[in-house]
Design a protein that fits this description.
Distance between the termini of chain A: 25 Å
Largest interface: A-B, 65 and 65 residues
Helix content of chain A: 25-40%
Strand order of the largest sheet of chain A: 3-2-6-5-4
CATH superfamily of the largest domain in chain A: Type I PLP-dependent aspartate aminotransferase-like (Major domain)
Oligomer: homodimer
Number of helices of chain A: 12
Number of strands of chain A: 16
Order of helices and strands of chain A: HHHEHEHEHEEEHEEEEEHHEEEHEHEH
């Protein structure tokens, strides 16, 4: 079948039934209400409480990170992580051009400048080979620092992001980063539950961050977390995400500027219940991918993105990729899918094209520019794969 | 009776009964669990939802502000309010030396410098007369800008704070600010329900902010709000507290750096229930003040702080003030009160004494320095005044 929007609508209908179907909805089938109620009964709804402690412990167990610090959202987690690896005003931070705006905003909060890198076709994430070439061409090592020869600024860190839940080539990025002495902060906002080999995304860098926004695989309303295996960095993360108060029974001494980014206990209560369901959400999303793949297999010119080899993806957002010669169909496909109630969206506009980041340093972006025009995210909520369950279980 | 700690303990016991009694606990007697449950059922727990809209509308009605924008906490609200009045990197912002650290931290987030002002004895807030004298001595008007002659920096705003819920002399501060062309951002984090005449604190300045932290008169877990009567500023506040996304069905265009500070719907659900109880909380706290005043009236050298004349205070934190010649008793009184289970605390250490603000510009602080050594906050939760209810209702 050809790449007509009607054929894609028919394929989605065969998986999802009739619309409207949201792009991504949270699912609350577990202990959410019970834990919220317990939290209110405890009166500890704010920045300290048993659910925050448990949420951090549960996340540490799930991800394998030694330390977890829960925050109000993924953006704030990334802000603190960048400060902790030493990003200073005037520095540059390498980030993928193809990412959500928060990745670059967090760099700006440090009064630093995002410096954009190209993507790899197979992962959508930073291409380590292109990164190595670009750094070799434009940067120099000066007394152990990586310096952008054009701007004269220090390059202070690199932030690989695991796009739509698919792990990037983190080993490749770590190797290039090591060559230039760059600390790695992993933006795992979208990839809770995604593994490289058997290791969780977000635990390869010196620090990693997660997001629990309402559109993520599990949600705390708003929320994020900082992951690290370094106990000093974890202690600093907790200090900076509070008001940097020095412990005392009643005196008010704050020894640095803190950011008041702590996740409230009431949000963590929701999170604890959600984490209990995470493995079933991942299984559901992986199953949905299989069903989409089958349904779309007869359509030319478009395919669904699969997890990179050697990884397990959480398939947070299911991703269609048009062939390069079908790019001009994207707007029409989006229009028809949305008009038929299958809520769909393109990839983010590339970050260097946005007003606040125009003029920031950027590597050539041939792959990211191509991907930007070819991506369509389709309904991805956990639970969608259970439609037509009689068929499913007969297979 | 003399100012011995034992006498103060006896006075507090006569009001509170036996300890332990917390300094301030939230109270959840209303629709909190029901609204949280409804919020989960709606699946809208994150940055948009009916409870956020309602919380903003309810707050607007309660405070009389034309526009309210709910945020993750009071610190974030103050950060955005300062950006909106035009605070730029390198500017100075006038803040009270006697305040919680967040007031000065928010100035730092703008890459500006806090410039500290002295307090007024009767309100604890900024002393307009001392402010006027200090500005006349140290600042000059240059092309419509107020410039610190010593540092050469522009003074960009003034942030009066309503300490422990007691309104400062906001009319006086507004008048001096007008003389120097300074926008006023009111830090009403502690004063929800406190009025000057019949007008709510936080609505006198160009912008004002509230806090709903767990220790405040009502709580959303973590939360804050920006108040303004200016519809353009309100629109900008909403834009900056999100990701500054330009409205579109599915495209991702962000036209400036946003801060991801929006209050989640799940927190607003808690807040809507709390607001329904606010007037009863205020009544309870005002009643507690009366009981404390009576119980402490026989003790020399110490008094409980009363609302400034012409105002209604929410009496958020009940405040004992030692006479100047009794200052050296404060540490012992705090020790004995806490040891007897009546959780008590001193005022904050003055902000210019904290490491991150040492060396920042400061007016002379004779009153703030004196107050800092003489303040003791005592248990203040709503509901404490209902102890010994048989006596109460017989009066």
């Amino acid at each position: 079948m050809n790449t007509r929007p009607e054929n894609i609508v028919a394929a989605l209908s065969s998986v999802l039934g009739e619309g409207p179907v949201a792009l991504h909805e949270p699912r609350f089938d577990g202990n959410e209400k019970r834990y919220l109620s317990n939290c209110v009964d405890s009166t500890f709804v704010s920045s300290v409480g048993a659910y925050v402690d448990r949420f951090e412990t549960d996340l540490a167990r799930f991800t394998g990170a030694k330390h977890v610090v829960a925050t109000v959202n993924g953006t704030s987690a990334l802000h603190i992580a960048l400060l902790l690896v030493g990003v200073q005003p005037g520095d540059e931070v390498l980030v993928p051009a193809l990412s959500f705006v928060a990745t670059a905003n967090a760099v700006r909060y440090c009064n630093a400048t995002p410096h954009f890198l190209d993507s790899e076709k197979s992962t959508l994430g930073i291409d380590p080979a292109a990164m190595a070439t670009w750094l070799a061409e434009t940067c120099t090592m000066d007394s152990g620092k990586c310096v952008n020869r054009t701007t004269g600024n220090r390059i202070a860190a690199v932030v690989p992001m695991h796009t739509f839940g698919h792990p990037c080539d983190i080993a490749g990025v770590l190797a290039v980063a090591a060559d230039y002495g760059l600390p790695v902060v992993e933006d795992a906002a979208e990839s809770l539950g995604s593994l490289v080999g058997s290791q969780h995304t977000g635990t390869f860098g010196l620090l990693g961050i997660l997001s629990f926004n309402g559109n993520k695989i599990v949600t705390t309303g708003g929320g994020g977390a900082i992951l690290t295996n370094d106990s000093d960095l974890a202690r600093r993360a907790k200090h900076l995400t509070t008001t940097a108060k020095v412990p005392h029974g009643w005196e008010y001494v704050h020894d640095e500027v803190g950011y008041n980014y702590r996740m409230p206990n009431i949000n963590a209560a929701l999170g604890c219940a959600q984490l209990e369901e995470l493995e079933s959400f991942i299984a559901s999303k992986r199953h949905l991918y299989q069903k989409y793949r089958e349904a779309l297999s007869q359509i030319d010119g478009i395919r669904i993105l699969s997890e990179p080899s050697g990884t397990r993806s959480n398939y947070w957002l299911q991703t269609l990729l048009l062939d390069a010669d079908k790019t001009d169909l994207r707007a029409e496909i989006l229009e028809v899918l949305n008009n038929n109630g299958f809520m769909s969206r393109p990839a983010w506009n590339l970050l260097p094209s946005l007003k606040p980041f125009q003029g920031c340093p950027s590597a050539p972006l041939p792959v990211a520019k191509s991907l930007e025009r070819r991506i369509i995210n389709i309904p991805s909520s956990s639970g969608l794969s259970e439609f037509k369950s009689s068929d499913d279980y007969a297979q």
